[in-house]
Amino acid sequence: MRILSIIGLLFLLTACGGSRGTQVRNLQLGSGVDFAGGKGAKTDFYEALKQKMIGNDDKALPLFLKVIKAEPEQPAPYFHVAELYKKHNDYTEALYYAGRAAELEPENVFYQLLYTEILTYFQRYDEAASILESLVEKNPRDRSLIARLAMVYEMKGDNKKAIEAYDRLEKVIGIDEGIIQAKKGLYLRMNDVEGAANEIRKLINANPGELSYLNMLADLYSANNRSSEAIAVYREILEKDPGNARAAYALANYYLSQGEMEDFRRLIERAFRSPGLDLNTKAQFIYGYLQRYGQNPEGVSFALQLSDWMAEADNNSGLALASKAQILQMTGRKKEALENYKKALKLEEGNFKIWQDALFLALEEQEYATLLELSNEALSVFPNQPLPWFMKGMAYLMMKDYDKALDVFEQALIVSAGNPALEAEVYARIGDIYHEKGQHALSDSAYEKSLKLNPDNPLLLNNYAYYLSLRGEALDRAEIMAERANQLQPRNPNFEDTYGWILYKKGKYTEAADWLERAINHGGMQNGVILEHYGDILYRLGKPAKALEYWRKAAEKGGGTDWLEKKIRDGKLYE
């Protein structure tokens, strides 16, 4: 990348005006055109030149080689052959012919330049630099030659020599930001921060009203852990421009690190109220602030205040409102976050990321009517995106409108073709619908299709296995799935309960009890279903009193089966 920047600089310098040597001007009209050989060779030479100019390289090359054979002391055909070989990336041949052209006419600048380019390709930097030094000595004001020399030294890794060459270039064209940036980079390679700073100061002195160069200097110090110098420069910027958002932001961060909260809040407000500080920087700062101070109400309150200033400074743009919504979501204010997402989408309807965030939040918050509304709006903008179709299906599913949900999920399957992860989710939800409708053959088929696409979905493995156990069907298959779910997500009480319940259904009561105890130890004590299952297993193990104890606990927690009350009343197991 460094080389590319130098080449870009070289191009700019070459394009600049200014006087050049006679030889350079002549060459701009057509390098290697002159030919002093015999009549026949001259005819072949100009025909070769014509073919080269119109792009017929395969005709030009043999003609040039024919001329070289007839007139081996003429430099021009060597030059053109070298250019052709270089054009076709045959640098080995190009090196020989460029070298011969340079040798036969050492005063021709462009023959020498082509030779140095090819020498550079082979990393023969010393030879290339030696030729360029000689050319610069003869043409001390030719900025293109000096820039090439700097480039070669830089590629060689001779940073001092490269700086010297840029200094010579600076004497020719004056203070130039491109040259300063190049030298700054070279000084930093040598870990000479002050040398780099001195280069930036040249720009500051030459452009006293341009504060961006003071910012550049402050950023340099900051990036190199010279905080005291950076702070001094940022203060200087604020003295000259009290509304400078970047400087206010940098100083605010400094005061925050020092625990000087009053100064921090004063300056961070100035920075956040200004449109001069970009939105991404503001949002990232708030995220970091919340990580550090979001454990106390005061920290959360100030983060929310920052998000308000951020949105106001951007005239409540869609992106600013979306960023504010993310921060509200992080702080648990999810309903407010959803409202801000909806406002953002009115201004940024083409931003799919905002739709995605809003849809997921609506689903998480169980705002199913809002989810349906947002899905339809998203589909009006992105009709071929599978996610809004999936979310629309989820809205109908959660509202128990199963027939509409099925229709939408069928469409979701069409648009999600080629996205196996999403296809698997759609099939899983179709399976849920058929399970709720009691159409078990269809639900099993959908679940199997989902698992074929994503065989390690722990939630589906668990749920499918549990549904089979409730029906007392395919218990061996159910056991394998439940075991895999627990491998994928250990210490999950619901998964442990499922596995234990399948073992119970298979008559393996002792093993089943072990798994239900694990489930209880991992949080299942708050789950009425798990407690009731454990009571049933205890009863089968010949412990009716202990079973009754857990049935009563299950009743306290709620969520048990329709048999639970009768079990407690009679002290007997009913299934």
Explain how this protein is built.
The structure is a single chain. Helix content is about 80%, strand content about 0%. By secondary structure, it is mainly α. Among the domains are: about 1-15 and about 35-175, Serine Threonine Protein Phosphatase 5, Tetratricopeptide repeat, CATH 1.25.40.10; about 455-575, Alpha Horseshoe (Serine Threonine Protein Phosphatase 5, Tetratricopeptide repeat). Mean pLDDT is about 90; it is low at about 1-30.
Termini Cα gap: 74 Å
Helix content: over 70%
Using the coordinates above, name the CATH class of one domain: Mainly Alpha
If classified by CATH, what would the architecture of one domain be? Answer: Alpha Horseshoe
Q: According to CATH, what is the topology of one domain? A: Serine Threonine Protein Phosphatase 5, Tetratricopeptide repeat
Mean pLDDT: 91
* Number of E-type strands: 0
**Outline:** elongated
Q: Could you tell me the radius of gyration in angstroms?
A: 38 Å
By helix and strand content, what is the structural category?
A: mainly alpha
**Poorly predicted regions:** 1-30
| Major sheet summary line | none
Entry summary:
The protein has 33 helices and no strands. With 575 residues, it is mainly α.
Give the SSE layout.
Blueprint (H helix, E strand, L loop, with lengths): L1 H14 L6 H8 L9 H15 L3 H14 L4 H13 L3 H14 L4 H13 L3 H14 L4 H14 L2 H15 L3 H13 L3 H14 L4 H13 L3 H14 L4 H14 L2 H12 L6 H15 L3 H17 L4 H13 L3 H14 L4 H13 L3 H14 L4 H13 L3 H14 L4 H17 L3 H14 L4 H14 L3 H14 L4 H13 L3 H13 L6 H13 L3 H14 L6 H7 L5
Helix pairs in contact: 1-9, 3-4, 4-5, 5-6, 6-7, 7-8, 8-9, 9-10, 10-11, 11-12, 12-13, 13-14, 14-15, 15-16, 17-18, 17-19, 18-19, 19-20, 20-21, 21-22, 21-23, 22-23, 23-24, 23-25, 24-25, 25-26, 27-28, 27-29, 28-29, 29-30, 30-31, 31-32, 32-33
